[in-house]
């Protein structure tokens, strides 16, 4: 600084006014894009840590759905074989969808402590933890498609060209999962017991979503619960290209996309409005 430069000018240059920044939603999105490489590194780190001390390693991600499918097929096929043809493929498709959603959101809820510890050491947008949690779940989805293909080959179920449109329902599910992740992450940062409560909610949510049963067996008096469940529509968007060879009706597909975008928007807004409180809550 030159001797002729006024002191007030130098102070203005290095003065940061948090109240003068732009909208939180835009600032956080910009920071997230700037730190996109950190998101990739965190996904790789979490994948490595998850399977580092596992006997089967990544193979467990592919074996677990097959074991679950075999057990539930033995239990439910005798009861549901009249309602559901190709039950193993039906369940496997639903299981992959559900695992994507549940893993992505529960990972996000578990990241609150780590995010606070890392944020004390260096600056990083908290949103990278939610996005990376969804990214880890997304990697597991693609790994789970391997046993899905194996199951289709073994059972003689056709692998149709409609599988090529699976990225669309995956993107829709990813948007919903990420929005829910932002919501749960924010609440878990504020209330410590939210993580345990959410695990109970996820387990209950599993049984009110048609994963192991067909929607047609739900008694009429309980159909409203099914129709109010957003995952009921999302799972159709994911499952129909595999089982039926096409997406569900444009109404169901469009409604699923709308639900996902609304959840993403609500979760992002709620997350950004509480960013300044994270350091005091976690």
What does this structure look like?
The chain is mostly helical and 282 residues long. The chain has one domain. Helices cover 72% and strands 0% of the residues. The chain is built from 13 helices and no strands. The chain has helices at 7-13, 24-34, 36-51, 59-80, 87-110, 112-121, 127-155, 167-190, 194-207, 223-227, 230-243, 250-273, 278-281. The two termini are 40 Å apart.
Summed up, the domain count is 1
Largest beta sheet, briefly? none
Task: Indicate the percent of residues in helices.
Answer: over 70%
Can you give the mean pLDDT? 81
Which strand-content bin applies to the residues? Answer: under 5%
Low-confidence stretches: 1-5, 7-17
So what's the overall shape?
globular
Helix tally equals 13
The SSE order reads HHHHHHHHHHHHH
Summarize this, please?
With 282 residues, this protein is mostly helical. The chain contains 13 helices and no strands.
Using brief descriptors, characterize the structure shown.
mainly alpha, globular, 13 helices, 282 residues, disordered N terminus
List the helices and strands and how they pair.
Elements: H1 7-13, H2 24-34, H3 36-51, H4 59-80, H5 87-110, H6 112-121, H7 127-155, H8 167-190, H9 194-207, H10 223-227, H11 230-243, H12 250-273, H13 278-281
Helix pairs in contact: 3-7, 4-5, 4-7, 5-7, 5-8, 5-9, 5-11, 7-8, 8-11, 8-12, 11-12
